[in-house]
Amino acid sequence: MTDIRAELDIRDSEPEAGFGDYVQLLKPRVMSLVVFTALVGLLVAPVSLHPVEALASIIFIALGAGASGALNMWWDADIDRVMRRTARRPVPSGRVTPGEALGLGLGLSLISVLMLGLAANWLAAGLLAFTIFFYAVIYSIWLKRSTPQNIVIGGAAGAFPPMIGWVVATGHVGIEAVLMFALIFMWTPPHFWALALFMKDDYGKAGVPMLTVTHGRRVTRAQILAYTLALVPVALWVGFTSIGGPVYLAVALALNSVFAWGAVGLWRRGEEAAGLDSYRAEKRFFRFSLLYLFGHFAALLAEATPWAGLLRAQFTLWGGA
After folding, report:
1. Which long-range contacts (CB under 8 A, 24 or more apart) does 82-91 make?
2. What is the Cα–Cα distance from 203 to 251, expressed in whole angstroms?
3. Does pTM surpass 0.85?
4. 150 Cβ contact partners less than 8 Å away, ≥ 6 residues apart
5. Rounded to an integer, what distance in angstroms lies between the CA atom of residue 294 and that of residue 275?
6. How many independent structural domains does the chain possess?
7. What pLDDT, on a 0 to 100 scale, did the predictor assign at position 270?
8. How far is Cα 142 from Cα 137, in angstroms, rounded to an integer?
9. Residues 112, 58: Cα–Cα separation, whole Å
10. Cα–Cα distance for residue pair 172/169, rounded to 1 Å
């Protein structure tokens, strides 16, 4: 009788999962960025979709992103438990079992890919399937724990959504889609290495070979600067394609100037700079990197509006005068 009561007490003390925990499994912050960039890729494409078809496609892309997040949390539960930033996630905290996370991830993967193929086209569905596989298997299971280049190569997973959105609308991959992919791909290392700079101890405790852990702060800051300088021409190149224009170029010039200057500032700090002032500078750079990416895609969206088209026409007339 005592054993039964003790077992019941243990069960009662176990945390119970709520609806919010299952939502958290889908990484809603990451999902919001995926939805936004995919939506921009769809809306700037030269083919108009019926609103219902467009909405359904974005929902299924979002579900695919959520599936990736659930699979990542299933696999990374052991290291998430060690890191302060991730210890309260549903799986390491015990509110959701690893099996539930795996089942949700696999189920959403299947649903999202099949439904996107039916709602839009099978090329877009194939790209979504590859994106889920790349994030869950290539990045999470293989790269993340094996190489300090994990973020560089793994960044491709987060770069596919605008390309998928473009393919949903057009049925093919164009240079504009490739450049939107390249913009996010080149942005990813500076963004995540800035995070790794002020979260270095967490990655070290978890045994994740982030560049900050394997090569130190000076090398990481130099790599942030190198990738930022390589990112600038890619970001500006987008402005000279069919989806760019004066609005985008003005925004891109401003954002890239600030971003490059911030990268130079981090690089000048060197290996020994690891105090509170450096922590704040690294965190500012990380936060600005989010604004940087949002600003570029918001500017692309602005270029797709009728008033931006009129502005481009005026520039063309002035250039020909």
Report:
1. 82/202, 82/205, 82/206, 83/199, 83/202, 83/203, 83/205, 83/206, 84/202, 85/199, 85/202, 89/24, 90/17, 90/21, 90/22, 90/24, 90/25, 91/25
2. 34
3. yes
4. 139, 143, 144, 208, 209, 210
5. 29
6. 2
7. 62
8. 6
9. 10
10. 8
Pair (152, 215) in one structural domain: no
The CATH number that applies at residue 269 is: 1.20.120
Confidence of residue 311 (pLDDT cuts 50, 70, 90): low
Q: Does residue 196 share a domain with residue 103?
A: no
Helix 98-119 and helix 122-133: axis angle, to 10°?
160
Indicate whether 79 and 191 sit together in one domain: no
- Domain encompassing residue 93: 19-170
Is 59 within a domain?
yes
pLDDT digits (tens, 9 = 90+) for 79-100: 999 888 888 899 998 899 999 9
Residue that wins the pLDDT comparison between 274 and 168: 168
User: Residue 2 falls within a domain, yes or no?
Assistant: no
Query: 267 in helix, strand or coil?
Result: helix
- pLDDT tens by residue, 146-189: 999 999 988 899 999 999 999 999 999 999 999 999 999 999 99
DSSP state, residue 183: H
Q: How many C-beta atoms lie closer than 10 Å to residue 309's C-beta?
A: 12
